[in-house]
Amino acid sequence: MHQALAGLIMYSVWRHTLSGGLSVRVYRYVLTGSLVVTSFIQGCLILFRNLSLHQAGGQASITRVKDSMFIDIPLARPWKVRAGQYVNLWMPFFSLRSFLQSHPFMIVYWTEGTAPSLYFLIQPQDGLTRKMYHRAHEVGSFNLAHDEHSRELPEGCFHLAWISGPHGSGAPVGEYGSVLMIATGIGIAAQLPYLKELIWGFNHCETRTRRIHLVWQLDYVGEMRLHEWQGLD
Taking the complete model, does pTM exceed 0.90, yes or no? Predict the structure, then answer.
């Protein structure tokens, strides 16, 4: 919808400036050319991320644990994930209107090497995420560090998913001697990649951080347990 409105505005501006002078035409062609080039580059990057000789897009598995859901998407081309990055997720055949929607989700798992899969922990809101939650396969728990449960789900639990990104560069938290992290509820998902990266950097003498203070507010004790899905135990 946003892309369609942007295209309509561009067309309106183009029509409005047709009667302009030479400088107006130059600006119009430069801006249009820039848009075409950047769109072409972005399209090539999306194809590169999602297509390979053995895979056309990822088969996303969606599992439900209590009031949250977990998404696992195998990558066509593994890449190095940095803490703080996110991707835009597009699932064209999930529902009638999902073809027109893409949603940004924070990557919630970090590893020192290239990541063969992307993981997301999501609290459903209205719209597409609520539909995803209701159609997810319910499980008791999950652990990214040790379990492969998501690849063993029934056939109907997998959905075609394309991603664009990664976006964002993350914060250089490893350059500070003390780090304070504050999160509420499921907001801890955005902090955990930083936490795991800092612990790995400390163990391998690649970070300056020596003290980490984590403040995590929960509605009730036992709402979430870090070691269940990040392997921080």
Answer: no
